[in-house]
Amino acid sequence: MKKKFIIFGSVTILFVLFTCNIFGAPVTIPKVGIEITPAKNPQDVAATIQILLILTIITLAPAILLLMTSFTRIIIVLSFLRQALGSQQIPPNQIIIGLSLFMTFFIMQPVGTEIYEKAWKPYVDNKIKLDQALSEAVKPVRKFMFKQTREKDLALFIYLSKTPRPKNQDEVPTLVLIPAFIISELKTAFTVGFLIYIPFLIIDMIVASTLMSMGMLMLPPVMISLPFKILLFILVDGWHLIARALSISF
User: Fold this and answer.
1) Other CB atoms closer than 10 Å to residue 95's CB: what's the count?
2) Cα–Cα–Cα angle for 64, 70, 74, nearest 5°?
3) Which of 51, 149, 158, 197 is most buried (CB neighbours < 10 A)?
4) Dihedral sign from CA coordinates of 221, 227, 232, 233
């Protein structure tokens, strides 16, 4: 496999060089390098710190997407739906994750727009500094998380962190808000998953009771109930209902 990759890469490079030679275009091979030199002024140090900060944010981006947005609730509900249907790996994990991501982008669009207008654009236009931009960027996310966080969960983590009782939302630390938001989302997702399970569970019970009464004990009830559950899901337009319920829930 490695040999084939090397051959393919060599052929591709030769083809590009041959094409450039035919059309008379100058062939230049770029030089790529990383240079580390001592900082000579405070501006160099500040630029280095900004680069490290950006790399840190990029590293934490998956965790931010998973735990500080609507992604957690959506993907858990869709996973419950697949389990309730009993369709094994249909839809595949890639489809569930992709749908969850795009629904997350749709739901979080107002938050992203506010971050762009109040934090990113003023920072790019040199109207505010980096620390002010980060502070403005966190505000819409905190506002979203506060709407979905239960007071009971928030009080728990305030108590565990041993911080003074906040008088308003601005005094609640973000590191306290994030875990409270996560467990609130988990409870909401599991509640929705339980409600999704009920109609499919009823179908399983009816099919199992019918097979037992007919003496077909060796026939797996799941094999018989699966088409009925899929048919029920199609008749009620299940994907429309699930997408609508998840969007409205936020």
Assistant:
1) 13
2) 120
3) 149
4) positive
Asked if 178 and 68 count as a contact pair (C-beta separation under 8 A), the reply is yes
Which tokens in the block code for residue 167?
Answer: 């008088």
Quick check: 178 and 67 in contact, CB under 8 A? yes
CA-CA distance, 239 to 78, in Å (whole number)? 10
Angle between helices 42-67 and 71-85 (to 10 degrees): 30
Q: What is the mean pLDDT of the chain?
A: 76
Q: What is the DSSP letter of 116?
A: I
Q: Which of 82, 90, 81, 87 is nearest to 222 (CA)?
A: 87
Is the Cβ–Cβ distance between 98 and 133 less than 8 Å? no
> Which residue carries 């990383």 as its tokens?
34
Dmax over Cα atoms in the chain, in whole Å?
87
Count the alpha carbons within 13 Å of 13 in the hemisphere toward its beta carbon.
Answer: 8
CB 138 within 8 A of CB 170: no
* CA pair distance 87, 229, nearest whole angstrom: 10
DSSP letter at 108 equals T
Q: Determine contact, residues 178/145, Cβ cutoff 8 Å.
A: yes
Question: pLDDT digits over 87-142, tens only?
Answer: 777 788 888 888 888 888 888 888 888 888 887 788 777 777 777 877 788 888 88
pTM, 2 dp: 0.70
